[in-house]
Design a protein that fits this description.
The complex is a heterodimer of chains A (464) and B (318). Chain A has 464 residues and is an alpha/beta fold. Chain A contains 21 helices and eleven strands. Chain A has two domains: 231 residues, Periplasmic binding protein-like II (D-Maltodextrin-Binding Protein, domain 2); 207 residues, 3-Layer(aba) Sandwich (D-Maltodextrin-Binding Protein, domain 2), CATH 3.40.190. The N terminus of chain A is likely disordered. Chain B is 77% helix and 1% strand. Chain B is built from 14 helices and two strands. The chains are: A alpha/beta (464), B mainly alpha (318). Chains A and B meet through helix 1, helix 6 and helix 20 of A and helix 13 of B.
Chain lengths: 464, 318
């Protein structure tokens, strides 16, 4: 337990990106799941649209080539994908350097600007790298491989405009997979309080919380200690998407001019969270619960719900096999709008990379090749993305991954994908959301005060 | 042999004579000695310069710029210092550092004196050795490991609360590190635990150097244990006390690891200290300038507090 605890602390410590949570968990995924994939599918390049197979097959040539890569330590997906790629294209090998995400954040710019820039790199926040012209513009590859015909929402978060706003403009990053968040529930405890189907409105959900509380069950397990970052931001953002459209929230995360988080809809959402806190729906020590601790307590049956992402699927399958279900947080009214946090695992190519074409071919291969897609599902527990007409490979039967993958299309259809509000600026999580949510738990902050304080921190950081 | 025997004293006498005559030369010899001295100091000085003086100079330099760590820095003069001294969040970190002095300095020194006196007075045998070892152990354990263990101890179901429940104080049990009222005190207690052993050992060593005749004389004059302590023990420990206070005050003001591991500044910045804030500002806020300014301010505060203690102990200790 100490090892896992320590590792996740190191990775999580102070990091603003929730994507990091993904990495911390995927590392346990990697140890839990054998890195094998169906060999039957390995040799076939899936039927990608347009000219991709032909164009791609030549992108890496036939002569021996070594791509330099900079990956995230303890995060198995890119390692498994590159190994599989070399198996299929033996002339292509990878010289992989790996580092903690925190170190990648601080050194990416220097590495990309060096004389030997990486061909493939795990990206921290993209905007500043694009502004400094350190990342390859991927627009031409998008045309060549037909990425521009994929569901637009897949590429949205990887676009940066000429004025440095995310969410529109040219493509600078590629998602190796797409993680998705929502509500995990303990099936046994759900039955105990009479929950037969996932709630369809916020009122339904709140009724379940009250029922659990009355039955002596902790309604929601969540982490909210500074070391892991305030996990109450998960239910808060889900509530925001239930009471208002997702677009203004994404605008805020993408630094669109004039965007604010302090809106009437968000105030309603925050007030709901405040009520949950006051009603005792979270553990009394939530301000000192760390990420790993919250997950352990949930999988050991100590609470009904946990707000988290599909990166913890392997942990659920391993520690609470068959007893965990998943649903996306419901809308305010039946049939209303809803949304959830979903983000690509961002990789990029250095502007001056020597093997940019081959790296782009690798990206396309990860999204379209059957074996590569299977690795994403089996090891990462996440949706591999790619063309809309390609089937998502199945996870092992009984795995909660099947449930998280199943809700993906509904979210996409509702245009309910949001980037994390914790990712808006470099330290909005550590200096804004986390302390403010902690204060709310301690009764030292109101819903209105919380949104004002976070907005003030946002403006302050933008002016820095 | 004989020739050698004879010539040896001659030679040495000659050299002595030469040395004497050289020493009387006002300029040349002194310069050679100085040069030799510098030569011996040079390796250490080079290391000190590269790893201490240069980074400090760079920090001062950075503190005058607005810089994200990569792009061209922008000269802002003393603006960063203004931010450090006016931003309520940053000022609060400095106040927290001062609050920690109570736990890192006052408790270990006062308690250390008591414990050292007790060990010296009544636990001289194996028990004394054991007590010394147990008390010093926190100095040997890596702070990160200690911090992790303490977070478990102080958690809602931890040993601390189990103990309180057992003695009938269940009413006050809580997640200490997650409480706005208690987190800083809880972090402070971890620091006190770490530093108590160091202070005890230093003071115990100091006590063992005190002439026993002084105590005998005092006893003949009819002095009790308290009188002995305040009239003999305490004044004789000035040097050791100065070292204890210096080390622990610095530990309090520049604390990082204990806070980073136990609370990371939470809840709601209630345990945020300058060391952690500098790290957050530089690596997550990308405000290298502000982080450097806070660092410089911290260095100055430490110097202002420590130098008088050093001067006082030097004047009276000799």
């Amino acid at each position: 337990m100490f090892l896992a605890f320590n590792r996740s602390r190191k990775v999580l410590g102070g990091l603003a990106a929730i994507a990091l949570v993904a990495s911390a968990c995927s590392s346990s995924t990697a140890t839990a799941t054998p890195a094998t994939s169906p060999t039957t599918a390995a040799s076939t390049v899936a039927s990608a649209p347009a000219s991709s197979p032909a164009a791609g097959a030549t992108a890496c040539g036939t002569a021996p080539v070594t791509l330099s890569a900079y990956f995230e330590t303890g995060f198995q997906i890119p390692f498994s994908e590159t190994a599989e790629f070399t198996k299929e294209f033996p002339n292509v090998t990878f010289n992989i350097t790996s580092d903690q995400y925190a170190n990648i954040s601080t050194s990416a710019a220097r590495l990309l600007a060096s004389d030997t820039p990486p061909d493939l790199i795990r990206l921290p926040t993209v905007v500043s790298l694009v502004k400094d012209k350190l990342l390859k513009n991927l627009d031409s590859y998008a045309t060549t491989y037909g990425w521009d015909k994929w569901p637009a929402s897949e590429l949205l978060q990887n676009r940066v405009s000429a004025t440095g706003e995310r969410g529109s403009g040219s493509l600078y990053a590629f998602g190796l997979n797409y993680s998705m968040t929502g509500v995990f529930y303990n099936k046994k405890l759900a039955t105990q309080i009479g929950m037969t189907t996932p709630p369809t409105t916020v009122a339904d959900f709140e009724a379940l919380l009250a029922k659990a509380k009355d039955a002596g069950i902790t309604p929601i397990m969540q982490w909210n200690a500074s070391k892991s970052g305030g996990g109450l931001v998960f239910p808060l953002q889900d509530l925001m998407a239930s009471y208002g459209p997702t677009q203004p929230i994404n605008d805020w995360v993408f630094d669109k001019a004039g965007a604010t988080i302090d809106t009437a809809a968000n105030l309603t959402a925050t007030q709901h969270l405040e009520t949950w806190i006051k009603n005792g729906y979270f553990p009394s020590d939530v301000n000192s619960i760390e990420y790993a601790d919250a997950n352990t307590r949930f999988t050991s049956g100590k609470a009904l719900f946990l707000f988290n992402g599909d990166w913890s699927n392997a942990d659920m399958d391993k520690n609470a096999a068959g007893n965990v279900g998943f649903f996306v947080f419901p809308s305010a009214t039946a049939g209303g709008s809803f949304g959830t946090m979903a983000s690509p695992l961002q990789y990029g190519i250095a502007a001056s990379a020597k093997h940019a074409d081959c790296a782009a071919f690798f990206f396309n291969w990860v999204a379209t090749n059957a074996a590569a897609r299977q690795i994403n599902v089996t090891i990462g527990g996440s949706n591999p993305g790619g063309p809309a007409d390609l089937p998502v490979p199945p996870a092992a039967s009984g795995s909660v991954t099947n449930e998280t993958l199943a809700v993906g299309p509904a979210i996409a259809k509702a245009n309910g994908q949001m980037d994390f509000i914790a990712n808006a600026t470099g330290s909005i999580y550590a200096s804004g959301w986390t302390p403010e949510l902690q204060k709310m738990v301690g009764g030292k902050e109101t819903a209105a005060g919380l949104l004002k304080a976070v907005q003030a921190e946002y403006v302050k950081e933008q002016n820095q | 042999m004989n020739a050698a025997d004879r010539s040896m004293p001659e030679t040495s006498a000659q050299t002595d004579g030469q040395r004497r005559s050289l020493r009387t030369l006002p300029f040349g010899k002194v310069r050679r000695d100085t040069l030799l001295g510098w030569l011996f100091v040079l390796p250490a000085l080079a290391v000190y310069g590269v790893f201490v003086l240069f980074p400090v100079a760079m920090t001062v330099n950075y503190s005058l710029y607005r810089w994200d760590g990569f792009n061209v820095p922008k000269w802002v003069g003393l603006d960063n210092y203004k931010t450090v001294l006016t931003d309520p969040e940053l000022v609060n970190t400095l106040f927290n550092a001062f609050r920690l002095i109570f736990f890192f300095t006052v408790i270990p020194v006062v308690l250390g004196l008591v414990v050292a006196a007790v060990i010296r007075g009544s636990a001289t045998g194996k028990l004394g050795h054991l007590a010394r070892t147990v008390l010093f152990l926190p100095q040997v354990i890596p702070l990160v490991a200690a911090g992790i263990v303490w977070t478990v101890v102080l958690s809602l179901n931890g040993i601390a609360n189990q103990f309180l429940t057992a003695i009938g104080l269940k009413g006050i049990t809580q997640a200490w590190l997650g409480s706005f009222d208690w987190a800083l005190a809880a972090v402070g207690m971890i620091g006190a635990w770490v530093l108590l052993g160091l202070c005890t050992l230093l003071l115990l060593t100091g006590m063992s150097k005190i002439d026993k005749a002084l105590y005998e004389a005092a006893r003949i004059d009819g002095a009790g244990a308290f009188r002995e302590f305040f009239a003999i023990t305490l004044p004789s420990l000035k040097q050791e006390l100065a070292v204890c206070i210096t080390v622990t005050v610095i530990a309090a003001l520049r604390s990082f690891d204990i806070v980073y591991v136990s609370t990371a500044g939470g809840p709601g910045n209630s345990t945020m200290v300058p060391g952690l804030e500098i790290y957050d500002l530089a690596f997550f806020g990308r405000s290298v300038g502000t982080a450097s300014a806070l660092g410089v301010v911290l260095i100055l505060i430490i110097l202002v507090l420590i130098l008088p203690i050093q001067w006082l102990s030097r004047e009276t200790g000799e």
